[in-house]
Write a structure and sequence with these properties.
- By secondary structure, the protein is mostly helical.
- The chain has 2 helices and 2 strands; from the N terminus they run H-E-E-H.
- A hairpin with a 2-residue loop joins strand 1 and strand 2.
- Helix 1 packs antiparallel against helix 2.
Length: 86
């Protein structure tokens, strides 16, 4: 099966958004964690490093998942590959 130009655009957009979201995940998981001791300011009454480790990263992960699902649904509709109602 040969891919059409629409399929190529779909997968290019899919790979781009995946790469961007993985970069955000990497920064939140490893970069912020690595520099946690240097982040010595209070955020909502707690040290920022503690807050980011305990709550902030989890919130960002959920936002990443929600954004990806929303974006892919929009992309599916745009390229005519959305799931049909049964």
């Amino acid at each position: 099966m040969e891919l059409t130009e629409s399929h190529r655009r779909y997968w290019r957009k899919n790979l781009n958004i995946t790469a961007i979201l993985l970069a955000i995940w990497f920064v939140v998981t490893f970069v912020v964690g690595f520099f946690a001791r240097d982040l010595s300011f209070n955020f909502f009454g707690w040290p920022f490093s503690f807050w980011m480790g305990a709550q902030g990263s989890l919130i960002i992960y959920v936002l990443i998942i929600g954004y990806y699902a929303h974006y892919m649904n929009k992309l599916d509709i745009e390229h005519g590959v959305e799931e049909g109602e049964e």
